[in-house]
Amino acid sequence: MSKPRRPRRPVHGIVLLDKPQGLTSNQALQRVRHMYQADKAGHTGSLDPLATGLLPICLGEASKFTQYLLEADKVYRTRIRLGVKTATGDSEGDVIATAPVPALTLDEIEQVLARFRGEIDQVPSMFSALKKDGRPLYELARKGIEVERPARRVTIHRLELLGVDGPEWELEAHVSKGTYIRSLAEDIGEALGCGAHVVMLRRLSLGPFDQPAMLTLEQIEAALADGGHAALDALLLPPWAGLVSWPRLDLSEAAAYYLLHGQAVRVAGAPQEGGVLLFEEGGRFLGIGEMDDEARVAPKRLIRFEN
């Protein structure tokens, strides 16, 4: 006999989770969703089980906007171990090669790092979440299957050396979407001729969330125990928090009516192009729109409200 389905409730907003090490992003997502009893939930880009740090969890209608955060730049702090190459590019994989680590001055290390700043071509790891014929690459890799992965152009906006401790370097990297830190570590190891892998990885920032205060699973659990769902809801950021850089338009009651029924409307002060945040007079968030060729605001992704 199956268990009765846990009741769900309409809750909309973003939790800035500090993902713990050892959980997949989906496991962390399901833990948060379970505590909130949310109807829907999504996250904005996977972190490996090894990785910790910022994982925005979008609940309810906020999940409609996760794709825009997936496009955002990210900042990571990582520690890489030189001289050891692993099957996965991180410390969870089997060691497949070792080599002496060259003795380098700080100036020489800087010269190496300079090669990886700006636009570079990067081959994604087989242990990434990229999909081949609908299957994540890491699933194929765990079965010993390797497929060809074309190099992709990514941008390393900033790559800074924070410290050196024997064969380990601590780095901070501001990168474009699609950049894999484990691949960056492996490429640095290849450039030095000794191999390298990631031993620590933490995401600090994602798009507009620049080193924000984050909540641990334990803090969310404690809030639920102390104050119930009202306390949890007080921790939420609004559904549009990841799009705060977009222009905001406040629509009249009439304009909101037509837009909510799928029609483009003209709004004074609207930009000429691009996406906009849409609010009804009184402050209710309606969703996002896009300027069309006739300088009208067309609905793109709208919030569905409960009766």
Briefly characterize the structure:
The chain is of the alpha+beta class and 307 residues long. The protein contains seven helices and 16 strands.
What is the CATH architecture term of the largest domain? 2-Layer Sandwich
- Characterize the overall form: globular
N- and C-termini, Cα separation: 34 Å
Which structural category fits the helices and strands? Answer: alpha+beta
- The CATH superfamily of the largest domain turns out to be Pseudouridine synthase
> What's the total count of β strands?
16
Contiguous helical run count: 7
SSE succession = EHEEHEEEHEEEHEEHEHEHEEE
Calculate the mean pLDDT score and round it: 91
Radius of gyration over C-alpha positions, nearest whole angstrom: 22 Å
The proportion of residues forming helix, as a percent range, comes to 10-25%
- List unreliable stretches of 5+ residues: none
Overall CATH class of the largest domain: Alpha Beta
Major sheet size, sense and barrel closure: 8 strands, mixed
Sheet-strand content, in percent, reads 25-35%
